[in-house]
Amino acid sequence: MTFNSMNLDEFHDVWVFAEQRQGELMPAVLELVSEGRKLADELHCELHAVLPGHDVDSLAVTLGGYGADKVLIYDHELLKNYRTETYTEVIAQAVEAFKPEILLFVASNIGRDLAPRCAARLHTGLCADCTHLDVDLGGYIDFLRKESSVDVDNTNFESKMFDVERNLKMTRPAFGGHLMATIVCPRFRPAMATVRPGVMKLREYSSEKAAAVQVEKPAFRLDESDVQTDIIEIVKSTRKQVDLIGADVIVSVGQGIARDVDKGLALAAELADELGGVLGATRAVIDNGWLSADHQVGQTGKTVRPKIYIALGISGAIQHKSGMQDSECIIAVNKAENAPIFEIADYGIVGDLFDVAPKLIEEFRKAKQ
Which of 331, 364, 335 is nearest to 347 (CA)? Predict the structure, then answer.
């Protein structure tokens, strides 16, 4: 039977592409499986993880523990290392055979390369770099009420063109992060999305779910004729990356350091070092070239949930708050007593960061001693 992405009634279940490298799952995959579990429950269907690779059977238990009902393993020597053409071929074959309603990828380098290839091959839509996903309309309206300025009580969410209740509502930053757009794919399946790492909450691991996960190895076709590139060597970069997502403590700076950028960055870095943390920043700091893009926190940067988040000279624009508001403890320092950052701060200090930061460093140092 010819695959037709417009025969919506033929598609069911939620799928997550389980990205692995050298036999290890990427941490963000488990976040995505956790989110996929929520979507599958809203749709009253199963959650499947699709796992291409070679000798990766042991990863199935982990995927089950975080919510997958079934793991579809596509094992082949040609899938040991990622290549666009081989992975696209296998994912396309899998979708054509089983017809999932939703297919999610992590917005990693691999996910951002693979997802659009698969979407084009399957003639369906793709929403890139999502920060929020919903199927249930009530849940989506609650999200809008908390995270947007939309007057949801006076908004008609019904549509004559498609079933609002059943469609995946994919929310992502638009216009440089200045607003959030929600996108649906009403005419084609699967509805596909790449999801930014760090934005979805990780479920608690369930030993019971891990033990109950089903493992299936479907038949598929793959041979040397599908390979158009040769991997000569894999070289891992030695450049030090800023691990914002995995950090327990983040000290971030904003426009408040403009008066003396070098001193402001030095104070923030010293405070971060004192607490064993890393240095973060707002988009304005990155756009001014004061720090590299891997330090950026916010809608167009990274979404973080550290134990402690210290905001120095950050006013608290919605684009930045959405990327750090789930931190366990937020400490804000700003000269303006009505700065929006104080709305979400656990502790707020009204003052000049150049005066406050040295005192914080001194007090933390004393406490450690």
Answer: 331
Output the DSSP codes for 56-81. Answer: -TTHHHHHHHTT-SEEEEEE-GGGSS
Please check whether residue 286 is in contact with residue 302, taking contact to mean a CB–CB distance below 8 angstroms: no
How many C-beta atoms lie closer than 10 Å to residue 172's C-beta?
A: 22
Q: Which amino acid is at 311?
A: A
Q: Kindly give the residue spans of alpha helices, DSSP state H, lying in the chain.
A: 27-43, 59-65, 84-98, 109-122, 137-147, 207-212, 261-274, 283-287, 318-321, 353-368
Coil, strand or helix at 278: strand
Residue ranges of domains in the chain, CATH in brackets:
8-226 (3.40.50.620), 249-368 (3.40.50.1220)
Give the model's pLDDT for residue 160. 79
Q: What pairs with residue 214 in β-bridges?
A: 70
For residues 133 and 112, give the distance between their C-alpha atoms in angstroms, rounded to a whole number: 17
Burial class (CB within 10 angstroms; exposed 0-12, middle 13-18, buried 19+) of 207: exposed
pLDDT < 50 stretches in the chain: none
What is the length of the chain? 369
Q: In which residue are the tokens 């549509």 written?
A: 159
What pLDDT, in 10s, does the model give residues 36-63?
999 999 999 999 999 999 999 999 999 9
The one-letter amino acid code at 358 reads: P
Please tell me the pTM assigned to this model.
Answer: 0.76
Q: What distance in Å separates the CA atoms of residue 15 and residue 40, rounded to the nearest whole number?
A: 9
* Rg from Cα positions in the chain: 23
Return the structure tokens found at 230.
């040769």
Please confirm whether the linkage preceding 190 is cis (ω < 30° from 0): yes
Q: Which class for 367: exposed (0-12), middle (13-18), buried (19 or more C-beta within 10 A)? A: exposed
